[in-house]
Amino acid sequence: MKVAVVGATGLVGTVMLKVLEERNFPLTELIPVASEKSVGKEITFKGKKFPIVSMDTAIGMRPDIALFSAGGNTSLEHAPRFKEAGTTVIDNSSAWRMDPTVKLIVPEVNAHELSIDNKIIANPNCSTIQMVVVLKPLHDKYKIKRVVVSTYQSVTGTGVKAVEQLMNERKGIDGPKAYPYEIDLNVLPHIDVFMENGYTKEEMKMVKETNKIMSDDSIKVTATTVRIPVMGGHSESVNIEFENDFDLAEVRSILEKSPGIIVVDDVANLKYPMPKDAHEKDEVFVGRIRRDESAPKALNLWIVADNLRKGAATNAVQIAEYLIQKELV
Ligand SMILES: NC(=O)c1ccc[n+]([C@@H]2O[C@H](COP(=O)([O-])OP(=O)(O)OC[C@H]3O[C@@H](n4cnc5c(N)ncnc54)[C@H](OP(=O)(O)O)[C@@H]3O)[C@@H](O)[C@H]2O)c1
């Protein structure tokens, strides 16, 4: 199993390498790829050094799987070239997500949709992934009518430059900016670009991707996505209105039994999910589970996950593991 990691020097790529190592992914050859400026530099994997190679060199090596996290334009240009060489691409950018011929996969929700013909597979947006892992088992039981979500997103979701901006601001250094305003001691109700309808692209991703992953356009979703000066993961306040009534203890029990979810909900002992605790974990954490007392059949939840792990690298590696397990690659 030859595996290329495209964007190996980036925030997601670095975590991708860590996750592959930790999960003892059955690879026989690792091919790290980054931009031309990084070619020849080395990364370390399982204690061994590997040189970064160019895109063309990697394609020539005909990897079985390529895990892409190098931006949308890089994916649009190069994923089809890997596909042409017989490689299955799992892409972290937004480039292919809404392409009707491309599957958008969260293994806990819809891995069963994958077949041997899917040679470019899209990894959803980080905020969407952690939300649908929780929505799916509740939708199966009570049928979701509407979701209102507000996010509190980590700067690691923007990439290396954003982490540098936050760190520089803390040290009083005037360096390169990833955001239009200061991020330290601030909150930006603005993630990705603004669209004509007044929403940001990130907000509309949460709407459209949720419908696609859940294969159900009847679920109404509205989102407000917000950047905060935090590093460990994204948090979400989620209000869910169901078709059918629910029992709170049963909701908790369903979530506790669902794959990939850890319930942390003991307010008497001040236990609830936080980015500091989710950092470097692969699971999605849920707490503050309570009835919405302002509406019938409605529930409030607080969902936290490490956006670089379940929101990106872990989800992509889980897709690759599924492909191998089902002999689809
Ligand atoms: N951060 C998240 O939470 C998150 C979550 C889900 C998805 N994503 C997506 O994953 C992608 C990467 O995000 P990131 O946060 O890791 O960004 P990042 O830290 O800025 O890293 C970008 C990576 O892409 C490489 N790259 C850039 N242009 C390239 C090119 N033309 N050819 C080959 N490699 C190139 C860079 O290589 P150099 O070091 O050589 O420049 C670097 O390895 C983006 O599409 C992002 O939307 C990010």
Automatic annotation (TrEMBL):
Pathway: Amino-acid biosynthesis; L-lysine biosynthesis via DAP pathway; (S)-tetrahydrodipicolinate from L-aspartate: step 2/4; Amino-acid biosynthesis; L-threonine biosynthesis; L-threonine from L-aspartate: step 2/5; Amino-acid biosynthesis; L-methionine biosynthesis via de novo pathway; L-homoserine from L-aspartate: step 2/3
Catalysed reactions, semicolon-separated: L-aspartate 4-semialdehyde + phosphate + NADP(+) = 4-phospho-L-aspartate + NADPH + H(+)
Positions annotated to bind substrate: Q153, R227
Transmembrane intervals: none
EC number(s) per entry: 1.2.1.11
NADP is among the record's keywords: yes
Key words, A-Z: Amino-acid biosynthesis, Diaminopimelate biosynthesis, Lysine biosynthesis, Methionine biosynthesis, NADP, Oxidoreductase, Threonine biosynthesis
Residues annotated as catalytic: C126, H234
Residue ranges of domain Semialdehyde dehydrogenase NAD-binding in the record: 2-117
InterPro entries: Asp_semialdehyde_DH, Asp_semialdehyde_DH_beta, NAD(P)-bd_dom_sf, Semialdehyde_DH_NAD-bd, Semialdhyde_DH_dimer_dom
Binding annotation for NADP(+): T9, G10, L11, V12, K37, S38, N307
Pfam families to which the protein is assigned, alphabetical: Semialdhyde_dh, Semialdhyde_dhC
Class in the EC hierarchy, top level: oxidoreductase
Domain of life: Bacteria
CDD domains for this protein: ASADH_C_bac_euk_like, VcASADH2_like_N
Record has Cell cycle as a keyword: no
Entry binding sites for phosphate: R97
Stored PANTHER family: ASPARTATE-SEMIALDEHYDE DEHYDROGENASE, DEHYDROGENASE, PUTATIVE-RELATED
Function field: Catalyzes the NADPH-dependent formation of L-aspartate-semialdehyde (L-ASA) by the reductive dephosphorylation of L-aspartyl-4-phosphate.
Record-linked HAMAP family: ASADH
Subunit and interaction comment: Homodimer.
Family the entry assigns: Belongs to the aspartate-semialdehyde dehydrogenase family.
Protein known as: Aspartate-semialdehyde dehydrogenase
Biological source species: Pedobacter lithocola
Lineage of the species this protein comes from: Bacteria, Pseudomonadati, Bacteroidota, Sphingobacteriia, Sphingobacteriales
Gene: asd
